[in-house]
Fold:
Amino acid sequence: MIVYSGLVTYHNQKSAPVEGYAEISAPLGSRIKFNLPDGSFGWLNSGSTMKYALNFNQLREVQLTGEGFFDVKHDEGHKFLVKTKFLNIEVKGTAFNVAAYADEDQINVTLERGSILLKSDRFKTPFEMKPDDQITYNPGKETLAKINVPAQNFSAWKEGKLMLRNASLEDLARQLGRWYNVNVQVQNPQHVDIRYRATFEDENLGEVLRLLKISSPLDFKIEDRVKEADGSYSKQKIVLRVRKSH
Structure:
């Protein structure tokens, strides 16, 4: 879905005037591919939004909330910038994944090809990334950690694969909620020591919950949808609970 705003202009001595914005959103439960005016392309994951100026070829900047994969066309004369709430990513020609959801306390950047620079007002100098580097930045704690990973695994969501990578119970609830557009609640969130690792491809929600139950101490309850005052129905509600060990 693409929504165009009304015409907005302003002048800045350091950048081209903005002639209005385009916004692309991936509704909950969906993943969409996008193409940018300069030939760059990518995907947005469920519940994500990207905004960019209509005169994009003069101002190659996008604002991202959520998760996106970018395959950026090289242009020596115009840098490409991905802006998130706490971190900016500067590139020239490369492919990388960014996860910066508003309801999560950290940002993950995983580089597949090329090189990128991470910039923030909180960094003394930009941080350069190489292929298969993954950076996890926690703005609240002001911590930054780097590990080496198989980068393509972290963009497998664009191919319809739901991947749990050392996910906590709260992470699991958020991912299932976004992926299937349901309301997932955790009944006993104090079990933070339990981690989930799995890959699901084309499974429906019921099958995913069943597989999680038989492979971990996890119980679930699917509650009926409730009819609202306006005649619509609420999202399906899933309650997760960790079974107590004996």
Remarks:
- Residues 1-13 have pLDDT under 50 and may be disordered.
- The chain is about 10% helix and 40% strand.
